[in-house]
Amino acid sequence: MAVLHSQKLILLIVILWFCMAVCTPPEDPIRCSSKNSNCTITNSYGAFPDRARCRAADVAYPTTEEELISIVANATMNRRKMKVATRFSHSIPKLVCQEGEDGLLISTKNLNRIVNVDGLSRLISVESGVTLRQLINEAAKAGLALPYAPYWWGLTIGGLLGTGAHGSTLWGNGSSVHDYVVQIRIVSPAGAKEGYARVRTLNDGDPELDAARVSLGVLGVISQVTLRLQPMFKRSITYLTKNDSDLGDQATTFGNQHEFADLIWYPSQHKVVYRLDDRVPSNVSGNGLLDFPGFRSTASVALAVIRTTEEIQESKGDADGKCRGAVLTASLLKTGAYGLTNDGIAFTHYPVVGFQNRLQASGTCLDSLEDARITACPWDPRVKGLFFHQTTISVGLSKVKSFIQDVQKLVDLEPKSLCVVELYDGILMRYVKLSSAYLGKQEDALDFDITYYRSKDPSIPRLYEDILEEVEQMAVFKYGGLPHWGKNRNVAFEGVIKKYKNAKSFLKVKQIYDPLGLFSSKWTDQVLGVKDEVTMFKEGCALEGLCICSQDAHCAPKKGYFCRPGKVYENARVCTPPSSGIR
């Protein structure tokens, strides 16, 4: 009871601080010891999957396309490796990392202008460093809306295109932002006759545009993007909680019933939250607003207490404590309407009706004044806060029912096992549609977004780590799921390029745009199948998802971990420490 009481107190503190309007802004992911030289870069979480800190000799901050051309030309002439960096560097994999320490980072932080908004043609042109929030707001001023988008607005347009970021729908062209792009301007290396840099303008219908829609940053630097928008519209949202006994059947059809449908699954609680979300006429009353609690400012002291509590639970194998916290978390989210308010102030009833720009995304912890880190975004690595893995896999709709049933079998075997993901708001399930992008979605699918505790010590196993690894391997290997390019541990990318039917076409464009591979790195070459494998074999590598457990050497035998087959998926290989309390 004392543990439960403390968790209630902690969450009460968090809720109070969620109401705050300011916090310490996220730090620039690039840090240099000498002005713009001798630099390191990380992501917004402070750690890549292998925990490496990536280095570069210099960083450049172009403010115009002309400056960008000059920077790329100079680096190409000197055959320097280059990588594009964004303002918030929100991707988990090592997309921004180069080989060695002599390369150049090109930040799009200052390429942040709205170039043009055409209300008649419903087009918006922006520089690649413009954030999703900027685009949404500027479009709204012209009475226009981006129909589908990720739920977190702290992404740049270039960054979300590079990783294929998406919202949730099976309607229209689908939920991926890149499928609404009608033009991209991209600066790539060139030969001496062209001045060592070339600007290509790719328009809708150009086959090469389908390579650039999702490019992992290996084709060059996107300087400008034009997207097709829609007239501003309203949405009506209602959240409905049900038992998950028929989730396998419901998940395959729910996306066709509601335009902006998604689901939040709490497997250990046997509950699923359905979002009934559709367009309504603009004359329907309502001025609703989304401000998702997980994206709000949080007191650093509350974050520290929450993290410390979870570390204690992990060290003691306290599954009951995690499950109690998961139930409380789900209850608080439900009571708070998942961040929705009817008028921007309070939630009174469903449905919540409002304009698209006010409901499609949020991220108020970015609205930040410097406050000496008294408050922060919950994952800010400068404070003791959330530190987690994310496994995000899209499973084809034809296979979703079987995958869900397999996960439910694991829960039947270990009823408390997935409380560890329910503490992180459950499994978010978003609908994605077949895309023309060469590295986009290959079929209509349901995206499973799973967030869970990560230890600061890579050699320490997590509570029910074996169950989560089996879920991950089932999604990737048994059901052929596609990993989100901007999330996931290394194991999810093993052999991934073989799952893309137009992979060869993408690699042909890559060879044309950057024949010297100046924008490529060891990691991108590995995931694109150009060289080696993305997995890393060393003692304990399977504990961090850097490899698949295939022999005891991968499970840190000095600490007693061993490799065993999965309980549900016979081809899964997971690390388990005997007598650890996780079984």
TrEMBL record:
Any coiled-coil regions, as ranges: none
Signal sequence annotation: 1-23
UniProt keyword annotation of Flavoprotein present: no
Cofactor(s) demanded: FAD
Catalytic activity: L-gulono-1,4-lactone + O2 = L-ascorbate + H2O2 + H(+)
Record GO cellular component, one term: membrane
The EC number(s) this enzyme carries: 1.1.3.8
Enzyme class name: oxidoreductase
Positions of the FAD-binding PCMH-type domain: 52-232
An example Gene Ontology molecular-function term: L-gulonolactone oxidase activity
Gene3D superfamilies in the record: 3.30.465.10, 3.30.70.2520
Record-linked SUPFAM superfamilies: FAD-binding/transporter-associated domain-like (SSF56176)
Pathway per the UniProt entry: Cofactor biosynthesis; L-ascorbate biosynthesis
UniProtKB keywords: Ascorbate biosynthesis, Oxidoreductase, Signal
GO biological process, one term: L-ascorbic acid biosynthetic process
Superkingdom per UniProt: Eukaryota
Database matches in Pfam families: ALO (PF04030), FAD_binding_4 (PF01565), GULLO2-like_3rd (PF22906)
Listed PROSITE patterns: FAD_PCMH
Annotated family: Belongs to the oxygen-dependent FAD-linked oxidoreductase family.
NCBIfam families recorded: pln_FAD_oxido
Name the record gives this protein: L-gulonolactone oxidase
Species of origin: Escallonia herrerae
